[in-house]
Amino acid sequence: MDETPEPVEPANLRFLRLLVTGLTGIMIVGLVVVVALIVIRLNDDGPTMPDQITLPEGVSASALTIGEGWWAVVTNDNRILIYDQMTGALRQEVEIK
């Protein structure tokens, strides 16, 4: 019967197929790494407080800003507490309305 030979794949096409497959794998791994880093970053518990600052009982920090000679801590109960950077003493308290 009539047997037709299978076409031979050119070497350049085989190389191109390997490159596309490799790049696809690298893109998948990169996407997984980016998603993992975003998830890790979003699970952070908040800013790291300096050792000199002691917050009032039952208050946690939402944000921390550092200025020249002072720290401003935004708390979860809508206040801004301003602390002296040298002594850690509370200088000012501002209520956010």
Question: SSE layout and pairings?
Answer:
Blueprint: H1 11-42, E1 61-67, E2 70-75, E3 79-84, E4 90-95
Antiparallel strand pairs: 1-2, 2-3, 3-4
Description of the structure:
The protein has 97 residues and is α+β, with helices and mostly antiparallel strands. It has one helix spanning 11-42, and strands at residues 61-67, 70-75, 79-84, 90-95. A four-stranded antiparallel sheet has the order 1-2-3-4, with no helix packed on it. Strand 2 (70-75) and strand 3 (79-84) form a beta hairpin. The mean pLDDT is 88.
Question: Can you describe this structure in just a few lines?
Answer:
Helices cover 33% and strands 26% of the residues. With 97 residues, it is of the alpha+beta class. Strands 1-2-3-4 form a four-stranded antiparallel β-sheet, with no helix packed on it.
